[in-house]
Structures are given as structure tokens and as C-alpha cells.
Amino acid sequence: MAARPMYKCFGVLLVISLGLFFGLFFGLNYPEIVKHGWPLTRCTILSSEIATRYCCETSCQTGTCQTAPSGSPGCSGLVSSIDNGYSPTMCAANSSACPTQVGSVCDGGYDCCATCCSTCESCTSSCSNGSCTQSCTSYQCNCYCCSSTNDLYCTLSCPICYDVDLEVKYASRDGVSHNVSYTQDFKKDVNKADSFFGGHTTNSTSFCYYNPKDETQILFNVNFTPWKWAIFALFGALPTFVALSLFAYFLLIRPAWNLIRLGYGDMLDAAKEGAKKPVRMAKALGSRLKGKKKEAEGGDEDGEVVKSEPEMDRPPPAYKPRDLQDAGP
């Protein structure tokens, strides 16, 4: 009866591990595998430039639950207005075109700063051989927000992010020429943006890959991302391998081994019985031959010679004349 819950646990473990396996594989790795198979071609850079933009972000006092001053502008609207309405290039050319809200305080809205919970207890009982034991564990329950603010104190910062915009010309496998636009976002890493821009200057050529299903999409790098495969191996492949190994051992290998052991034991017993039968048959046959030999020599089955008593002399039969024999009485 205890085997069924164990099999259920193995089944649940297998289902969870397979879910992680396929979820991570198709979510992280499969798109890279597809892009890795895109056709290779040569791209000619028609034009290239580094584009800058503001990518504003907020830093909020979530741990202290500090409230923003009354009348502070909302953070989300402030971020959107600066990202879409200001340009670092124009700001560099004219200081009056720079956003003045950078470094100011904004209202982050509602935030739960602390959670309070009750302590609950769960107990289980187990009985064996007429005696029962009880074990209890405590856990948090009935949680609720016990400290919050409707106007979270946040500070606005607007660093510069970098994009490299390219106009590219390439020929597909069928010889058709395509002019496409390509943009790569480097976020706040200006060094990577400068390095990529230096390798893709105007009128230069470099290898690139295009999507055969949508020839407006190109990539200059289709290498696999190591951290994605590391996550897949650690949280997808390894749990699946362990679950399949346990499942195979307890449901296939162990029962098969038990059957093999039982069959091997029966074979040994049969072999032992088969080895004893010829010995017994040989002994019986030897005994019979010995008995017959003794009988032929004039002995009994126990090997003792039976002495035959001499026949006593008997009188010869009375003589009748032939004539009397023929005449009858």
C-alpha cells in the first residue's frame, strides 16, 4: 500500500520537471536554435549612426515607506514625458532643451511597505503497532498589509541610452536584393555601442544572417547565450534527468531485476534437482544390474548364494507293457 503514494510522488516530480524542461527550452533556447539556422550572407552598410535617448528611471524608498511631498508629479507621467519629449543631442546643443525634472522628487503611488502575518499550526498524526505520534509545524497565515502609503517617495534620474541605427543592403539565396533597417539597443553601455559602430561603418561589408520567413529581419550575431543554456541545464535538464532516472529505476529496473533474481533462483533449484535425478537413476540401474547378475550366479538380491538342495532319488515309474497300455483298462 505504501508503494502507490511513492509512485504518485514520482509522477508529480516527473510532470513538474518536464514542465520546466519544455518551458525553459521553448522560452529561452528554441528561438536561439532557430536563429542559429538562418542563412548566411554579406551585408553592405549604406548608412550608420549612433542614436541617443533618455531612459529615465526612479529610485523609491520602499523600505522606509516615506511619503512624497504634497503636489509632487506622478513618476510614470514624468518618465514618459522626458523619454518622448527630450533628446540628449538637442540638450547638448542647447541647454534650454534639457529636462529640468532630472533629480526631482516624484510620486510613486501606492506601495505596501510592510506585511504582518499570524502564526498558524498544522499537525499530523501517524499510528504504528497500536501507538500514535503527532508532529506539528508552524507557518505564517492570514497575512495583511500593516504599513502602506498612497504617495511613495521616489527620485527621478535620466541616464542616456545608446542605439546604433543601420541601413543595410544584402542579397538572399535566390539573388533578390533587399534594403532593410537594423537597430541594436545597447542601453547605457556606450563602450559597446562605440565598438559595434566602429565595426559597421558606412560602405563597409560584414557577414550577417537573415530570416528566410521574413527577409526584413537580419542579425549580425546568432551565437548562443551562455546564461540561457546554464539556466536550462540547471533548472530544466538536471531535474528532468533525476526524475526520469528515479522513475526508470523504481518502475522498470528494480521490478525487472527482482523478476530476474526470482527466475535465476528457480533455474538454480531446477538445475540442482536435475543433477540429482541422474545420480538416483544411475544408482537404481546399478542396483538392478547387480541383482540380475547375482541371480544369474545363483544368488539372491542380497548377494547370498542360494544352495540348491540335491534332488532325492525317486523310484522310476512302474513299467507297463505296451500291449497293456494300448488295451487300456
Automatic annotation (TrEMBL):
Residues 286-329 are annotated as: Disordered. It comes from Mycena alexandri. It comes from the Eukaryota. Residues 304-329 have a biased composition (Basic and acidic residues). The chain crosses the membrane at residues 229-252. Keywords: Membrane, Transmembrane, Transmembrane helix. This is Uncharacterized protein.
